[in-house]
Amino acid sequence: MDAAQARANDRGPVRYDQVVWFVFTIFLIFVLARYMQWGARRDFLATIRIEFLTGGIVVIASVLQMTSLKRIQDGSRHVFMAIGALLLAIAIQVPFAANRPMAQTVFEDRVVKFAMLAFLIAVQVRSPLTMRLFIAAFLLSMLYITQESVRGLISGGLVWQNQGVMRLHGAVPMYAHPNSLGGVSASVVPFCVFLMPAVKRWWLRLALLALLASALICVVYSGSRTAYVGCVGFVLGWFLISKRKVRWLTIGVVVGVVVVLVLPEQYKERFMSIGGEEAEGQSKEARLQILADAWQVFLKYPGGVGVSSFQLVRQRMFGRIQDTHNLYLEVATNIGVQGLIVFLTFVWVVGTRLVRIRDQLIRQRDRLQLMVKRRLGGAGASKALGRELDDLTFLAACAQATVFFLFVRLVVGLFGMDLYEIYWWFAAGMAIALTEIGDVAMRRARLLEQRLQAPEASGADFGGL
pTM for the complete prediction? Predict the structure, then answer.
């Protein structure tokens, strides 16, 4: 958007896109059903295919709603293009896959359906209020999943031995494997950390604190070294962006000492075995063998062996069937060097978009905070400033959390296989939604600045932004 258009838009009222609340409510139900796995918990909900039913309704309604959207920012277009390129890179590997039946199933169930989440977030989440409700539904789902496992830890019903360690599992199939439970728990930590300062109500902070505690317990007791690595990556990244590094480091050392003192010995050994031996088995040698085999497969088939076909090709070549256990080799072997380039470009576009909108929101928030210090305007101005500041702060926190969410998934990818997971589409949808909402929020803030700087600001009405 050029400067002239921005000035023109700032002259009159600046409104967020309206949502159809009936459709948006169904969208929230879909989010809850998907992340809580309602269909796996109740036979009736499985019979009516609750996720497909609610998702299908929202997809159809969202297609119709697209015609009423007022704008699409250039940043959003770039993300849409990256989504399209990644979908195409995966799709062209389906008909030529070594394991074509598996490729078709994975593409339909774990690529197309998951990619719909990005589309639904982009269309349905169009204001700070709808973003708050969406994030609330997502985090409520994560709280339910993690506290369920914590209760299983206390009762012992979800803990049994695996690889020489007592490992915590999830209660439903999607989170049943300790690595799955640990991975999703590690991914939610950035939202707890960065949203906590952005909310004012004590009970919301308490809920975020409860989610953070249950998520970290799930990470530790899952015994998932991929989740451990993801959390370590998050802590290091958080430290690097911190402005008060000495204070941060002091608190971190104290917390670290406490954790080491109270953590059961087997989980400390599990953490220390990253890159080494498990209590049982030859994990290090097995992982190195997988990486070596994956590299040989990639060299032989640089164009890719097809969607989810590495295991079959590895079995034919080496007589071994385990998957890559590495996101980047998974991408390279499945969809080829061209797919790896597209995937890394996709991550770069989504990540840089989130960083840019975060920085823009923070700069605009700081400008409004300066006006608060100057005490410009009357009571109406203070109320309007408070409202816009709350929105800008929350949106910036969401962008920051999603950046670290994406970063954690990339770190976890060093030891896990996530190409066909929903994480990438969630981040892409958030990037689009935050770009669109952020643009309106900043134009509203600029309009408020103009009114506050006007001579008649003390008697102005600030309710009609």
Answer: 0.91
